[in-house]
Design goal:
heterodimer; A: alpha/beta; Rossmann fold; 4-stranded parallel beta sheet; 4 strands; about 50% helix; globular; B: mainly alpha; Serine Threonine Protein Phosphatase 5, Tetratricopeptide repeat; about 70% helix; about 0% strand
Chain lengths: ~140, ~210
């Protein structure tokens, strides 16, 4: 059984923490590592590549990390963070283009079930599918 | 090469850019409020103030260490997209500059490596209404002037003029990158904030590096 870690990168710490709360609500007793790197250190809106790299390292147990992010600088800070982590950690990280909230919910559920990194990343990417099936 | 681009000269460049960003903070934010999220001036000022504070707390020993420290500070402290973009720019410059003072040609190569880093990070192309529209022509003008045998001061002046021209040319463009791209056609008619701060970076180089002939 894999222990894939998740990282949430957002401009807003409240947004990131609420997304994590929403995702964990699915499985209140599950042990899934979800690290948050969000907001500036003075409490404002923004992203910090050094904080993202620390979150990735903290989330990594050796089985890989899937990083979900909101928009704009969150994407570029996540890419920059990959340059700042150790080489062996970097190989295990996937930066996901999944929608943050929907992707995180799906990823947490399958990560809690022991899925491997690629399976967790794939589940995040299909996060919009239930909503699309309902509305489209 | 007594007058080449040493750590003191490059530190003066960083400090002059920080001073200029602080002076133009409101102007940068006003430009960004028209087509973005109204934080470019505040973000760049926070980042460059932190970079200067870091220089004072731990003075770097050589050019590569200096620009690496500036880059790391910016990727951490700016908050917005200009953090990873300007941060990567300085980190890539640091990768070209070694521990020794740089000559003109090495400085130009470092600046181009910074440009390549901005392209790789932002995935923008010329004409997308970004900082690239000032930085790319500046690198081209610097290379051309040095190839003609012009001294560093004249070459930097040509680079800064090209950056300013590129900045002004962003006004009619429709943004294809960044927050402004959400506005589509409504982004036309406004000067790009990133190109504006990049022109300040080149102006700062003219102000403090022109006398440092390599």
């Amino acid at each position: 059984m894999s222990r894939v870690g998740l990282v949430v990168v957002s401009h807003s710490r409240p947004l990131a923490e609420a997304a994590v709360t929403l995702a964990r609500q699915m499985l209140p007793s599950a042990e899934v590592t979800v690290e948050v790197a969000a907001g500036t250190d003075d409490g404002g809106l923004g992203t910090d590549a050094v904080a993202v790299s620390a979150a990735i390292t903290a989330a990594d147990s050796g089985d890989g990390v899937v990083v979900l992010m909101d928009l704009g600088s969150a994407v570029m800070s996540a890419e920059t963070a990959l340059e700042l982590v150790d080489d062996d950690v970097r190989e295990r990280v996937v930066l996901s283009s999944a929608p943050l909230v929907e992707g995180l919910v799906g990823a947490v559920v399958v990560a809690a079930g022991g899925a491997d990194r690629d399976r967790v990343a794939a589940e995040a990417l299909r996060g919009l599918a239930p909503k699309q099936a309902h509305l489209d | 090469m007594a007058d080449s681009l040493d750590v003191a000269a490059l530190e003066a460049w960083v400090r002059e850019f920080a001073r200029s960003v602080a002076e133009h903070k409101d102007e940068l934010t006003a430009l960004d409020s028209a087509i973005g999220d109204a934080d470019h001036g505040a973000n760049m000022d926070r980042g460059m103030s932190a970079a200067v504070a870091a220089l004072e707390a731990a003075p770097p020993a050589d050019p590569a260490a200096l620009l690496k420290q500036v880059g790391m500070t910016l990727v951490s402290k700016v908050g917005g997209a200009s953090g990873p973009l300007y941060g990567t720019f300085f980190l890539r410059m640091a990768g070209v500059l070694g521990p020794d003072p740089a000559d003109d040609e090495t400085f130009a190569r470092a600046l181009r490596a910074g440009l390549d880093g901005v392209v790789a990070r932002g995935k923008a192309a010329p004409g997308d209404k970004t900082m690239l529209d000032a930085l790319a022509p500046a690198c081209d003008a610097l290379d051309a002037a040095l190839a003609e045998g012009q001294p560093l001061g004249a070459a930097l002046a040509a680079a800064a003029a090209a950056a300013t021209e590129g900045r002004d040319a962003t006004v009619p463009l429709v943004a294809r990158k960044g927050r402004a791209s959400y506005l589509g056609e409504r982004s036309a008619g406004h000067q790009d904030p990133g190109a504006t701060s990049t022109a300040l970076l080149l102006d700062a180089a003219v102000t403090v590096l022109s006398g440092s002939a390599g």
